[in-house]
Structure formats: structure tokens, C-alpha cells
Amino acid sequence: MRSLQLRRSKGRSGRRHITPFLLLWLGSLTQAVCAQATNSDDTSQQIQHLTEAMERTQAQLQESQRQLDAMRAQLAALQRQMTSRSVPLQTSPSDTAKAIDELRERQTMQESQIATHEQTKVETESKYPLKISGQLLFNAFVNTSAVDAPPIPTLALAGSGTTGASVRQTVLGFSARGPHLFGAQSYADLHIDFDGSPQSGSTGSNYTGYYSGNSTFLRLRTADAGLRWDRTEVFFSLDRPLLSPEAPTSLTSVAEPALAWSGNLWTWNPQLGVTHDLTLSGAHALRLQAALMDVGDASMPGSSVGGAAGVAPTLSERSRWPALEARIALGAPRPDEGSHIGVGGYFAPHLDPLGRRFDAWAATLDTRLQLSDRLSLSGSFYRGQALGGLGGGAYKDLAYLADSTSGNYYYSPLADVGGWAQVKETINARLQFNAALGLDNAFAEQVRRYANPSGTIYQNLARNRTYTGNVIWSPSAYLVFSLEYRDLQSVPAIGPANRSNILGVGAGYRF
């Protein structure tokens, strides 16, 4: 009996011990279930984050693939361009050798130019860099008939021809870059040559020849200075008109640019102006230019009017108003490079020697078109009145006539039309061919009314025309050679036309 009670007592005691363990197990199970639920929520968030990261990565991969495809297309285009410019896919050994030689020539030219840029800069008092450059130029010429200036003829005359040589077209230049002002880079450029007028009364003791004189021939050629921002430039200069930014290429006509007085408005006059560039798109830009100008006179007898210290004012200065010029050009983002087309206008009040007012004016068109990698077309055209001060008008602003009885002069502003065009073929960095024509045509009816059979060719000239062609070869960055032919024809309003065939040779050393 006692043993039975003992077993029952043990059974109750075992159940009392089992119950706490059961409760502990149930609590642990509940915590595990809760933890599993919490882990399930965290896993869902992690899956969502991973999905978003994968979507972003996929978008980046797609953008990278697009960029790679674009780079492959550009690389293929460059390869096709290089193949078309250098060696075809199927070339003969001789063609390959020529292409290699051309690449070597370009490399040599680039190395010479790099060596030039690496030279020590000239030290100035302002401590800002100054670059000295120039071209020692030798010219030999043969003129089949008489001309106004044998080394650089611009007008054909009646008479026998000439043969000679000159070094007076040598040019010396100074280029300086100064401090920044108002956020702009300051600059100044100056060029001189040796084509000034010889001193009268020279004797054998200080003069050794017309084309080899020294100090008497130094001449200020052009000068430019200003402030240059990214898109705007303010300047003053002694340079060619804004209306005529292009010039034909020549190595035998440097003292006066090629086609001067045959359609090229080139004269160097003092100017104060501004230039602003507007970017229209990635491929086009608009250039706006305007300036005030002190325009000079063409050579004209009877126009001298006394001034201070014996200096005669120009007909434009006598009006007390400066000339105005403006130009608008559409072209490449860098207007100085690539193709462009521009239109311009010019207006200048004048007073003739008798004190009567007349106006000089012009409307112009200029262009440079890159027809292919090697071929380009450039030119300039104008229509106006009294353009002798810009290098047109048949050497005169006015048609004039002297009264033999009274000695008085009678004047009339002269209408004029003209222009020039040039085709350039650049074979490579060393060789180029140029062909150009120019015409300056004063209205013959006006000239004829004031013509004088005993007058000068300048007074009676109505039309000046030039055809020219040259080849220019530069074996290095320092040496340049040229052979040029010109057909120059000058037609007066009365009397026969004069014509001269001109053969010129040029050899220059650049430094």
C-alpha cells in the first residue's frame, strides 16, 4: 500500500516537472515563429532592394552599350576616312610608299613647328611674352611691258618691259600677349616691311641701289591691339577693312596684297571696332562686326589742302566725321576657320577740295567655301562710290578735270563695282596651287566725261583686271618657294588698253 502511494507521489512529482519544460518549449517555439515572421519581412525588403539595384544596373549597362555602339560607329567612320585619305584597302606597293612618305613629311613639318614653339621667349620690360616672327623674302620678276612698280605691279603702262629682283617685301612681326583686364586677354601685334618710299636726294655715299636701300624704306605695315573675351573682342588697328576679310594667296605680291587695285579692297586704315560671335547651333555661328575708320585718300592731283605743320588732311578728315563700317557673317562655330558667307556696308562723309560734300559708300559680299578636303573657293565683291580710299575706284575717289584757263578743278564722285575670286587646291601640307581673277571697274561713262587726253593714266583709268596663278611649295616649316604668273590689263576711258604679262619667283625664309 505504501509502495502504491509512493508511485503515485512520484507520478505527480514528474508531471509537476514536465509542465515547466513544456511551457519553456512552447515559449521558444513562439519566439522562433515570431523571429521567422520578422526574418520573412526583412527578406522581402532585401529582395525588393536587390530588384531595384538590378534594374539600375541594367539601365547603366544599356547606356554603356549605347555609348560603345556610338564609339564603334565613330571609330569605323574614322577608319573609313583615314582609308580614303591615305592608303586604299587594295593598294600597290608604290601607293603605300607614297602614303608613308606623305605621313613622314607631315611628321617632319609638325616637329619643326613644335621646335619653333619651344624656343625661348623674348623678355620684355613688362615681363609678358613677346614673339618675334617674320619672313625674309627674295623676289625676282620679268614684266613684258611697262608697269607702275616693277617688283609688285598693279597697273600696266605703255612702254618696254623690265627684269629685276628685290628683297624689300621682307616682313618683320611682333606679337605680344599681356595681362587680363575685365576678364579679357589683352594682345598687340605689329608688322613692318621695307617697301617705304625712298628718300629723295640720296647720294652715292649712302645709297647702294633702289632695291637694296636700308633705313629709308622702313614702313609701318599693320598694327592690331585689343581685348579678347570668349565671344567678344574690342580692338583698334591699322589694317584692312572689316568688309574685306579674305585675301588672295601670293608670295610675290606681299607689300601690296595680290589683286590690289583689281577688285581687292585692301588698304590699311586706322580703325576702332568690336566683334561679337553668336553660336546658333553646333555647326553654325553668327559674327557681328562694326568699326569707326579714318579712311585715307587715293592718289589724286589737286586734292592737297594745307594743314598743321604742312600735313594735308584727307577728304574724309575734312568732313569731321569718321567712316562707319559693319559686317555680318554666317559660318562655322569658329568663323576664322571653315566655310562662311558675309555681307557688309561702308559709309564715309567727304568734302572735296572745293568744300562741297559727297559721300563714299559700299555694299559688299565675301565668302569662303570649303568644297572638299583639298579644294576651297574664296572671294569678295562690292558695289559703291568713291572707293579709292579702300583700294578701289580705279585709284581715285573722284573723277576730276582741270580748267586750263582758270586752273580750277572740277570733281564728281565716281561709282565703282568689282571683286575677286580664288580657287585653292591644297595637295598636302607642303604643296598648294592657286588660281584667281580680279576686276575693278569704275563707270566708264563718268570717267569719260572728265577724261583728259594729256592727263595721267590714273586720271583716265576706267578698268583694271588681273588673272593670276601660282604654285607654292614649302619643304619645311621655315622655307617656302613660289612660281607665279599674272596677266595684267589696264583700260583707260580714252586711248588703247595696256597689258603686261608678269612672271615672278619668290623664295622666303620664315622665322
How would you explain this protein's 3D organization?
By secondary structure, this protein is α+β, with helices and mostly antiparallel strands. It has one domain (110-200, 211-510): Porin (Beta Barrel). It has helices at residues 2-85, 93-117, 315-318, 444-449, 457-460, and strands at 130-147, 156-166, 171-181, 184-193, 219-228, 232-239, 269-279, 285-293, 323-331, 340-351, 357-370, 375-385, 398-402, 409-413, 415-426, 431-442, 461-473, 479-492, 498-510. The termini are far apart.
Label this structure with key terms.
511 residues, alpha+beta, Porin, 16-stranded antiparallel β-barrel, two-stranded antiparallel ribbon, 24% helix, 41% strand
Number of DSSP helical runs: 5
Unreliable stretches covering 5 or more consecutive residues: 1-20, 199-215, 301-310
The total beta strand count reads 19
CATH topology: Porin
Average pLDDT number: 82
Concise structural overview:
This protein is of the alpha+beta class. The chain has helices spanning 2-85, 93-117, 315-318, 444-449, 457-460; strands at residues 130-147, 156-166, 171-181, 184-193, 219-228, 232-239, 269-279, 285-293, 323-331, 340-351, 357-370, 375-385, 398-402, 409-413, 415-426, 431-442, 461-473, 479-492, 498-510. The radius of gyration is 40 Å and the shape is globular.
Task: Annotate the secondary structure layout.
Layout: H1 2-85, H2 93-117, E1 130-147, E2 156-166, E3 171-181, E4 184-193, E5 219-228, E6 232-239, E7 269-279, E8 285-293, H3 315-318, E9 323-331, E10 340-351, E11 357-370, E12 375-385, E13 398-402, E14 409-413, E15 415-426, E16 431-442, H4 444-449, H5 457-460, E17 461-473, E18 479-492, E19 498-510
Antiparallel strand pairs: 1-2, 1-3, 1-19, 3-4, 4-5, 5-6, 6-7, 7-8, 8-9, 9-10, 10-11, 11-12, 12-15, 13-14, 15-16, 16-17, 17-18, 18-19
